Amino acid sequence: MNYRQFGKTDMKISELSFGTWAIGGAWGETSDKEALNGLARAMDAGVNFFDTADVYGDGHSEELLAKATKGKEDKIYIATKFCRAGDIHDPQTYSEKSVTNYVENSLKRLQREQLDLIQIHCPPIEILRNGHVFEVLDKLQQQGKIRHYGVSVETVEEGLLSMENPNVAALQVIFNIFRQKPVKELFPAAKEKNVGILARVPLASGLLTGKFSKSHQFEQDDHRNFNKDGDAFNVGETFAGLPFSKGVELSNKLEWIAESRGNMTRAALKWILSHDAVSSVIPGFKTVKQVEDNLAAVDVPDFSENEMEQLRSFYDAEVHKHIRGPY
């Protein structure tokens, strides 16, 4: 496993880490036993960072991480998120009382005395403009309840605005072959300000695995069914904002990236790691097999400059115009 400096924090984190939305819920049927085995396999391979949120399974993914990392609290970093358990548009959701409550509840579920990183979970831009929530987080940091804080954002504009606060240590952004916009402006700004970048939705909700046909049916409780058109939350969080059928069509045109790299999954993750602004890529998983497949991305061949240019041109010419939602 390779490790990268996580922005201005005191952490070096595994460049291939894992998100835990899928094992918490909203991705169809899951097994806690399989999830715990997957977390153990990841840690055995050197993964020292996991991303979660208080709303993933109503805290269930945090509880699973507590079990998986028991006795390893000083070696395994956990990032969580807050605000979406409340009304994200209500300023009171970001009050000192409310945020302290979110933090303390996450600490209880994670069975930790301090959060390594807490992120505001995709708040409306007016909350970021107001800025009061950052003052609250500064206070919690001074109290020792959190080590560092950051923001999970939907758009480049939100990311740039967040970084105007000097104590924002990390940004979590949607970034994959189908969502390349952060490269031009956000990533250079993050490098200049020494802000760590976590790349989420790296496989475009599975589109970039190349495993789906247009007729594929997702389970009722899978967000790829109930949020495919943005009916539950930001459409960009599902299939990177692409209509499913168009996403399948576009992924079929990318089969060539798997050549010499095993499969599309590994290739798509390796492409993200080709960007030095990225501190870590955080694919999700539900099975040990998926963990192992994702881990293999670290060792596959790099993309040549010609291949990188081909993928940039592909995004500009064929993908960008089909993305829905703000980004």
TrEMBL record:
It comes from the Bacteria. It holds the Pfam family Aldo_ket_red. Residues 15-315 form the NADP-dependent oxidoreductase domain. InterPro entries: AKR (IPR020471), AKR2_Oxidoreductase (IPR053135), NAD(P)_OxRdtase_dom_sf (IPR036812), NADP_OxRdtase_dom (IPR023210). SUPFAM superfamilies: NAD(P)-linked oxidoreductase (SSF51430). GO terms for molecular function: oxidoreductase activity. This is Predicted oxidoreductase.
